[in-house]
Amino acid sequence: MLPTMCARVAVAGFWVLLGAFAAHAQTSLSPDRQDFRRPTTIPFPESAPYSREIATLGKMLFFDPRLSKHQNMSCASCHNPSFGWEAPVARAIGAKSRPLSRHTPTVLNQAWSTSFFWDGRAQSLEQQAVGPLTAASEMAASFDLIFTRLSAVPLYRTTFERLFPEEGINKETVLRSLATYERTLVAANAPFDRWVEGDETAISEKAKRGFNLFVGQAGCAACHAGWAFTDGGFYDVGSELVLYAPVLSGDGETGRPKLKVPTLRNISLRAPYTHLGGFQSLEDLIWHYSDAGTSLGLSGRLDSAPFSITAVQVAEIVAFLETLTEEGAPVRAPVLPSN
C-alpha cells in the first residue's frame, strides 16, 4: 500500500524561472487554484515499493556520517530539514572544505521527479545518491568503505540481513534504502492547501492577489505548475551578470546548461535562491526577473519576456509564496546505532 500524504508528515530554490516564459503564459489560460490540489498518495517504482522498515533504515543512513570518507558529514549536512532540505548558504562546503559548484537543491517532493540534479543527469533517486556519496568534492566515500563500516555495526548488519535476506549490505540495498526514505520527504499541508480545499480564511487577501499575479501577469505558473509548483522541466534561461558564470563539469566549462525548475513548496525556508545561491530574498529574485531587473542589465533570459510589476505586487507574490510553507511537525534526527 502506498503511504498517504497525511500519514507522512515530513519537513521539508525558487530560482531562475520566476516569471520565465511569461509571453507563453499570456497566450494560454491561467490555471486556477484547483490545478494545484495535492495528490493523495506518493508514487513508488515497482522495483522499489514502499516499505516502512526500509524507509526507516534509509533515514538512519541519510543522517549517518559513516557514509562519508572522513565521517564528518552526512546527506543531511547539505540537505538539512530545517532549511527545506537544502543548505542555508549559497554553496555548501564539501569534503575538501571548499564550496561546491552549485547551490544544494532540495530533496523535497522528489518522488514525482524523473530526473535529478540541477542538470538532470541522474534518472532515479538511487542513481542520484551515488554522486554525493562518492564524489571527491562531497562525501568522498567508496562503497567498499561504506560496506565495511556498516557491517561493523551489529544493528545495521542484522537489519540489512532481515530486510534484504538474499543481498545483505551491498550497493543496491544501501541506495534503495536511501531512495525509499527520500521518496517519503513530501511537504506537509500548508495554508495554501486549506485555501484550495475551500477555506477562504486560510490565506490573506494579499496572498490571494499574489496568487493571481503568480498565475497571471507574472507568468510564474508557466513553469512552476501543479501541486508542487514545478513542471519538472529543464530550461536555458540565459545569462545574468550577477548570477551566471560557466558551470564546471568533468568535461570542463559547459557554458549555460539547461537547469531544472525546482518545487516551490517550503520556499520561504530555502534561501538563498538560484542554482548558485545568487539571491538572499524572494523579493530580490522577483525584481530580478521583472522588467526592472532587465533595465538594470541583470537579465538575459532566452525565449521569455520580462513582466512589469510594482513594489506592492512584489510583496503580494511573496505573501502568496509564504502560504506554501507547511504546517507539519519538524523532522527529528534518528538515534544512530553505536559500533
Automatic annotation (TrEMBL):
Pathway: One-carbon metabolism; methylamine degradation. GO terms for molecular function: cytochrome-c peroxidase activity; electron transfer activity; heme binding; metal ion binding. Keywords: Electron transport, Heme, Iron, Metal-binding, Oxidoreductase, Periplasm, Peroxidase, Signal, Transport. Transmembrane segments: none annotated. The keyword Methyltransferase does not apply. One of its GO terms (cellular component) is periplasmic space. It is found in: Periplasm. Its cofactor is heme. Involved in methylamine metabolism. Essential for the maturation of the beta subunit of MADH, presumably via a step in the biosynthesis of tryptophan tryptophylquinone (TTQ), the cofactor of MADH. PANTHER family: BLL6722 PROTEIN, CYTOCHROME C PEROXIDASE-RELATED. This is Methylamine utilization protein MauG.
